[in-house]
Amino acid sequence: MTRPRILVVGAGFAGVACVRRLERRLTEREAVITLLSPFSYQLYLPLLPQVAAGVLTPQSVALSLRRSERHRTRIVPGGVVGVDTAAKVCVVRTISGEYVNEPYDHLVLAPGSVTRTFDIPGLTEHARGMKTLAEAVYIRDHVIAQLDLADASNDDAERAARLQFVVVGGGYAGTETAACLQLLTHNAVKRYPRLDPDLIKWHLVDIAPRLMPELGEKLGKAAMDILTRRGIEVSLGVSVASVDEKTVTLTDGRVLPSRTLIWTAGVAASPLIGTLGTETLKGRAVVSPEMAVPGLDGVWALGDAAAVPDLAKGEEGAVCPPTAQHAMRQGKAVADNLVSTLRGEPLHPYRHKDLGLVVDLGGMDGVSKPLGVELHGMPAQAVARAYHWGALRTNVAKTRVMTNWVLNALAGDDYVRTGFLASKAGTLKDFEYTDAYLSPDQVRSHTASFRGAIASGGS
């Protein structure tokens, strides 16, 4: 008897949690498991700002999928660029640029999200993101390069422009990015005796009226106080009107001479979801409480790419926020429902009460709300780091992260550039490959042979 083929798309929190649960609960005779991902690691996304700041090494937050000796999932190194749900085939663009077809019986869609952008002149050509490991490494290089170039320049205007940095997005990613990178430049400038520390200016811009509104007014104000105390200028109710190589123009009319715009203004579901032809909610696939996609046989969706009903809130129409804690638990829940489907057992709806939020602002600062308890300052930072450390999937990752934290606290940083992408701009459109997806007609051309087999009664 042919074993059912389970394809899991995406190696983020949701996808990896699903695969690991399937490996533990299913025997090799019950199913063949395949994971489709461009990279053979799970990225611990919440710690990316610390990678950009040099507190953690890139390897610390890239958790290998091949380390476990019990690992039996086949990993295909590529991204899914189209799905033919009628033929039950995924079209995969491998890292070598080739297209391969992967048939499935059950498809778990956990492709995650991409940086949300808007139709702002110059944005995709000149802004940098903070969504991938490569972007975090590149931003660190770029920021240190601005210090190097400013130090070498004899032009006051150029020097001022290179030392002015703009971060857009007052959510967790933007606030942590601005806070961690401001500490990087604050400490690094001591090694540049020709630079006036007062020339270094950081701006945090967001169209919302408050920073991190999910934390509440009190903690939002505490975060604002921490940032302003460090000299970061926070502008709320403001966004970017346009950007070019040398300036950032804000919607309030200000023109900031700057060579650095870091864009963290939210995320959008992977464009893959938009190619399925299924119902969406703000770009996320609408799913049942069990995370099955209605109308698509054998297809499940979860994580950032799915609008999973939030049953714990008890509010009609509420969906789970795109956070790591929900993604990990949804991955396990989908795996359990898949096992139940294969064994003819009843399915269970996903339900999880949010455990709270933590924000590490670097140094001794943070704001956190674990289980509804509001904390700020050093206690909040300790809670944030303890939570992240505990959430790391492997003991090797935990050891690396803790070692990096201790070493950075004791020895500081050497502010070394790796030269990564030194000859390229390294902007938003260079890292997330959002233009790689196929149209329905292109997908069908790749899966024609499978459709023919179905029409002729083959398998």
The total count of strands amounts to: 24
Rg (C-alpha, Å): 23 Å
The global form is globular
**Largest sheet, if any?**
7 strands, mixed
* Share of helical residues: 25-40%
What share of the residues does DSSP label as strand, in percent? 15-25%
Annotation field: number of helices: 15
Strand order of the largest sheet: 7-6-5-2-1-8-20
Structural classification = alpha/beta
Organism: Streptomyces bikiniensis
Enzyme class: oxidoreductase
GO molecular function, one term: oxidoreductase activity
Domain FAD/NAD(P)-binding: 5-331
Protein described:
The protein is an alpha/beta fold and 459 residues long. It has 15 helices and 24 strands. Helix 1 (13-25) runs parallel beside helix 10 (324-343) and helix 5 packs antiparallel against helix 6 (156-162). The two termini are 13 Å apart.
Summarize the structure.
With 459 residues, the protein is α/β, with parallel strands linked by helices. The protein has 15 helices and 24 strands. It is globular.
